[in-house]
Design a protein that fits this description.
This protein is an alpha+beta fold and about 190 residues long. It has five helices and eight strands, in the order H-H-E-E-E-E-H-E-E-H-E-E-H. Helix 1 packs antiparallel against helix 2 and helix 4 packs antiparallel against helix 5.
């Protein structure tokens, strides 16, 4: 709003100045070029978001209720619009992501039908790996996961890293189940 008033004031001042018509025309042309450039630069973002929104809706990669991870954002899709997509984060806040960001970054999609949830624990070499595997599978089962499995992901200098994973049917309890798995893995 303020920029428009300043621009109109500069245009009115230029028109009222007692200078040669040729110079006055050049100044008005310069103001026109600046306005055109500002409009062109701002419209590329608007058009980019609009085209990305159309592309996202046409491709149907994700839908309402799916969890997505884009750039540094992660949450459940609550709204898909022409210019932005809205997600609800784990702390229940709503975050708007421009559709251009979604189109230009890799998107990880967790379908509403289910996903694999996992966590990693590092334990010393002095512990029995078979007992650890049984305990971690029990922790996954107690957390509500099915088809649990354990990977050894790293053999460090002083510890072994175990990754426990299991299938969560549906995603309505995604965050709480992930927390439950972390807690159960401590026991």
């Amino acid at each position: 709003k303020r920029q428009v008033i300043v621009l109109l004031g500069a245009l009115a001042l230029t028109i009222s100045l007692p200078i040669e018509p040729g110079i006055k025309g050049q100044i008005i042309s310069l103001i026109g070029v600046v306005l055109s450039a500002a409009f062109a630069l701002s419209s590329t973002t608007i058009l980019g978001n609009a085209f990305a929104g159309i592309m996202n809706n046409a491709m149907k990669n994700f839908k309402l209720g799916d969890f997505i991870s884009v750039d540094t954002n992660f949450g459940r899709v609550t709204k898909k619009g022409l210019f932005r997509t809205e997600i609800q984060t784990e702390d229940r806040n709503l975050t708007s992501i421009p559709n251009l960001t979604i189109a230009s970054h890799p998107v990880k999609i967790i379908r509403e039908t289910g996903t694999i949830i996992s966590t990693v624990v590092s334990l010393g070499y002095d512990l029995n790996s078979q007992k650890i595997e049984k305990t971690l599978i029990k922790a996954a089962t107690e957390s509500g996961l099915t088809d649990a499995f354990v990977f050894v992901t790293n053999l460090g200098d002083f510890s072994v890293s175990y990754k426990i994973s299991g299938l969560l049917d549906g995603t309505d309890k995604y965050f709480s189940t992930k927390s439950l798995l972390n807690i159960a893995s401590l026991e």
